[in-house]
Write a structure and sequence with these properties.
It is a single chain. It is built from eight helices and three strands, in the order H-H-H-H-H-H-H-E-E-H-E. The protein is elongated and about 85 Å long. The chain has a three-stranded mixed beta sheet, covered by helices on one side. The chain has two domains: about 200 residues, Cation efflux protein transmembrane domain (Alpha-lytic protease prodomain-like, Up-down Bundle), CATH 1.20.1510.10; about 70 residues, 2-Layer Sandwich (Alpha-Beta Plaits). With about 300 residues, the protein is mainly alpha-helical.
Length: about 300
């Protein structure tokens, strides 16, 4: 493997607190920004409020999925509800794409019917957004690389902070030079930022929904490490998939010598699972075969 640093499971208490705080302060800001947007007739504020509202919904859904992932497995759902974290991640990205369509529609409507707006109030409200989004993003910084939903929350909030900065600048320019079409342009910039931050999340979550190999795991390297374990002759029927946005599973057939004893077999199994942990694969089901057996449907990776 490329690294011998084990993937860490996110801290449940810290993440739960981060989600609750993030949802609360962002929901409050959405109310402030939306009210200011309508009051000052600013499409960029209204668009950004819509973006922030979708993020509040995304955080709420992610929190729900995070809690569902902790529900114990049962006879019907043998992995529990861990997969819900992947579905929520996919839903979040789809919701953001819908928001993009709405913003584009309104932006082009404003292009044909420009309106006069006040720049300074827009900058002040957007400035508050920079602080709120940056603080919210910081809550998820520590665990952003350990869970896809947490990464999505972090990326959205940082994107919001960047967008708010752009709105501040456009507000100042509007106030100084009365370039009112900048408000519409800024709303289109917001669309580009949303799309950029959402596209990778959409691709990753869709891939995991279809049981694709999780990002960061290379099958050829997994096979190489397994074959590198003393006593292993070959490996086939290797499948890797995600059971949640932070946990991966694998099944494989391992070929060993026919004269391998039980004690040595247990040692081989232990070494293989240890190597797999370095690739963030913590749920491995291994089936052992001897070199004298013939697995007719074997498919080599």
């Amino acid at each position: 493997m490329e690294s011998h640093n084990h993937q860490h499971i996110p801290n449940a208490a810290n993440l739960n607190r981060a989600f609750v705080i993030g949802i609360s302060i962002n929901a409050l800001y959405v109310v402030i920004e939306l009210s200011a947007g309508f009051y000052y007739n600013s499409l960029s504020l209204i668009s950004d409020a819509g973006h922030n509202l979708s993020d509040v919904a995304a955080l709420a859904l992610a929190l729900l999925a995070f809690r569902l992932a902790k529900v114990k497995a049962n006879d019907k759902f043998t992995y529990g509800y861990k997969k819900s974290t992947i579905l929520v991640s996919l839903i979040n990205s789809v919701v953001l794409f819908i928001a993009i369509g709405g913003i584009i529609w309104e932006s082009f409507s404003r292009f044909h019917n420009p309106v006069e707006i006040q720049g300074i109030p827009i900058s002040v409200v957007a400035g508050i957004g920079i602080i709120i989004n940056t603080v919210s993003a910081f809550l998820f910084f520590k665990d952003k690389d350990n869970d896809l939903n947490v990464k999505g929350a972090y990326m959205h909030l940082m994107a919001d902070a960047a967008v708010s900065l752009g709105v501040v600048v456009s507000g100042v320019l509007i106030s100084l030079f009365h370039i009112y079409w900048l408000d519409m342009v800024m709303s289109l910039v917001i669309v580009l930022v949303i799309f950029y931050s959402t596209w990778n999340l959409f691709k990753d979550s869709l891939s995991l929904t279809l049981d694709g190999v999780p990002k960061g795991i290379k099958l050829d390297q997994v096979v190489s490490e397994i074959k590198g374990v003393e006593g292993v002759l070959d490996v086939h029927h290797l499948h890797v998939w995600a059971i949640s946005t932070s946990q991966n599973a694998m099944t494989a057939h391992i070929i060993i010598h026919s004269n391998t004893g039980m004690e040595q077999l247990n040692l081989i199994k232990k070494k293989i699972k240890h190597e797999l942990e370095h690739a963030n694969i913590h749920h491995a089901t291994l089936e052992f075969e001897t070199d004298l057996e013939n697995c007719n449907d074997a498919i080599l990776i």
